[in-house]
Design goal:
elongated, 2 helices, 83 residues
Length: 83
């Protein structure tokens, strides 16, 4: 549901998964950029490929979840709610 066609009295805070204000959203977005940059830098470390993969899986899962939270907070739409 976009913010343009919400019923009267419903705010974006009523949408499941939207628990961030705009300042928190931008801070979380910046933190995700930092995490991605750190992961990219870590890929240049001389470690076994499996070790890289084992570290990337949980880190990228967390980044994806946090980016979804930012998307919901900024747009007011949660296309993953039913997923």
């Amino acid at each position: 549901m976009s913010t343009w066609n919400m019923p009267p009295g419903v705010t974006t805070n009523d949408i499941p998964g939207n628990d961030l204000d705009s300042v928190d959203s931008m801070e979380l977005l910046g933190a995700q950029v930092d995490t991605i940059e750190n992961l990219l830098a870590a890929m240049s470390l001389p470690l076994p490929p499996q070790l890289h993969l084992d570290a990337l899986r949980p880190a990228l899962t967390a980044v994806a979840e946090n980016l979804r939270r930012v998307y919901v907070a900024v747009t007011g739409d949660n296309p993953w709610h039913d997923a």
